[in-house]
Amino acid sequence: MSVQRATDTVMPTAEETVSHNPMRPPADSPRTAGQAFRVFLTHPSPLIIVLALIGLGLLRVQEGSLGWLDAVIALGVLALFPINEWMIHVFILHYRPRRIFGVMVDFYLPKTHRRHHADPWNLDWVFVPRHVHALVLGAVALAYFMAGAWRSELLTFSFVYLLLGLHYEWVHYLTHITWCPPVAYYVQRVLEHRWHHFRNENYWWGVSMGMGDRLFNTAPDAKETARSGTNRDLGIGR
User: Fold this and answer.
1) Angle at Cα 105 formed by Cα 101 and Cα 108, nearest 5°?
2) Are 156 and 71 in contact (CB under 8 A)?
3) Are the CB atoms for 210 and 189 separated by under 8 Å?
4) Is the pTM of this model over 0.90?
5) What residue spans define the domains of the chain?
6) How far apart are CA 80 and CA 219, in angstroms?
7) What is the spatial distance between Cα 76 and Cα 214, in angstroms, rounded to a whole number?
8) Measured between alpha carbons, how far is 141 from 9 in angstroms, rounded to an integer?
9) Burial, 213: exposed, middle or buried (Cβ in 10 Å; 0-12, 13-18, 19+)?
């Protein structure tokens, strides 16, 4: 993927561009670890995932002890999650409305994501919408009753996937608040996702993991990447 050379050679952090909206966090943005955790847990999505993890964990314990197959499943989910995350971001969240047989086809989830790009510091648009949780957990419940002898493996898969989903929510949330843990991994994830929002929305699709961007060559040198000019409306409005 070709990258247009940047006319400006640095990507300022939110603090360095505090006088220029929309890169300025609101005054009430969490600034400490305590504030960050408290605000995170006031939003429905993390709580839904935590409750689902507790339920899945209890069901998995009832199925018996863990074995080598559980380890293989967990490693497989971990390996594939960055690709899953990348594809969802590219093909679902950034879906472009299109006219089919004279009818404009659009979906609620990409609409909410456009609102998120238009107002990136508004935490109401940061988290996974509740209808997505209903669909995912409904699918897990249906699969559970149909899995038969494979229930334990299904529960392991679902638990690991949702655990990574909770981590995704945490990392995405960190990108859109002032505080960030002093851990190199999280600093890099926050930086790359802010580039996606404030420099060029066509790159840095990974949120909690960056392996998808490395695999699909969508993590260019930010200093060599021009601002798109459409990072707020994605070129199509809300």
Assistant:
1) 165
2) no
3) yes
4) no
5) 39-224
6) 18
7) 18
8) 50
9) buried
